# Entry
Amino acid sequence: MSWSRIVPVALFVVLTIFLAIGLTRDPSVIPTEMIDREMPQFELPELREETTVTEADLVGEIALVNVFGSWCVACLQEHPTLMQLSRDDTVKIVGVNWRDDRVDALDWLEEHGDPYDTIIFDEESDLVIEIGVTGAPETFVLDPDGRIRYKQIGPITPEVWKDTIRPVIEAIELEAAGEAASS
# Structure
């Protein structure tokens, strides 16, 4: 058999293997290098107040850090879920208002409701670049030590809350209870 016949067949087999592996991966899962890392250091203004927020403000309890903007259509889809979590006082919710005009953001919250305990105003994308945001909405689950434990890309629906995010929070709570018991 000549090389002119073997090389194309070998290339076809290699290409087929790579395509088959690619088809088995979930395209909605985008890996992040931030999992199990602390929130990076930052100091940004709070949207509603004349104060600043730092990474130290996110330490002490489990928190959802939710990236949103008044311009974000998909943020409207998850907003009722965030409002319900806020009404139920389920978890601390920290907003990151990304690439927005302050007045537009405040008007949007006035119209749709404000589920956030704190809102970081990230007008220049300083924080979102550091944590690897690819688009809004994205939500990060932080443990009490301020480490990122999970990243949700896309809206938080009731199903996503129940099937994905709540189990992550429950696992963090179990870890904390186990650490407290062993101390």
Notes: The first strand starts at residue 43 and ends at 45.
